[in-house]
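look at this fold:
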Amino acid sequence: MTLETLSETHCFGGKMGFYRHSSSANHCDMQFSVFVPPQAVGGAVPVVTFLSGLTCTEENFMVKSGAQRIAADLGIMLVSPDTSPRGDGVPDDPDGDYDFGLGAGFYLNATEDPWSRHYNMYDYVMDELQPAVFDNFPGNASRHGLTGHSMGGHGALTIGLKHPDVFKSLSAFAPICTTLHSLWGQKALRYFLGSEKSAWHEYDACEVARKVADGAQRPTILVDQGNDDAYLAEQLKPELFAAACAESGLSLELRMHDGYDHGYYFISTFVEDHLRHHARILGL
């Protein structure tokens, strides 16, 4: 896979870079960002991939979270892909709304026209982002964690729960815990997957959690959620994910925080806790 370097700069003794490559899963160019910590000069380091939320790109987490400082201290590589395909010919929301289409790929594989050619973010994260990172940067693929925010939290939980062999640690910030019972999720799944709701269950974190057979053997999942989040009751529903984890024996640390909303002030407050959570599980 050929990478085009868009920019690179020093950051906390390491390197912050933005990159582009051609994606066969999404039939367009895709971009992602990587922070390489200073410890990588001595060999491959653990990796935490962050999946961003609605309207975001590969830039938001790296610019707004402040995560590079603690990642440099711990020796963790950070990776953040774009949230959807983009470019000429990539279809967008028919009504021009923010919650579907460009910037809102929902980390699934679409089956309906015209979305199915381009909107295959699940395959992109699993099959293309992995070699793009591990073939070109000094990351240790056997020590890889996954996290995300909102729509990206939904992506992290559904993908991470299905692939514990790839993602050894898991967390989320204010995730959409049930696309089946979220207006954002229902809209996206109807467009991407059609009206047959049985196909939707594969991309609902609660449904995926209920199917985990080895829950007691997996590391604790960390989820942080603000009590003042405007989307908490209608879109996110962490209490349903907690119930699903209890059913399958998954260990979940769900922390609710008064005064915090859905934005990056919330993420930047707790990102150190999340990176330390991943560091413990990944053996740092």
Summary: The mean pLDDT is 97. The radius of gyration is 17 Å. The CA atoms of residues 85 and 146 lie 20 Å apart.
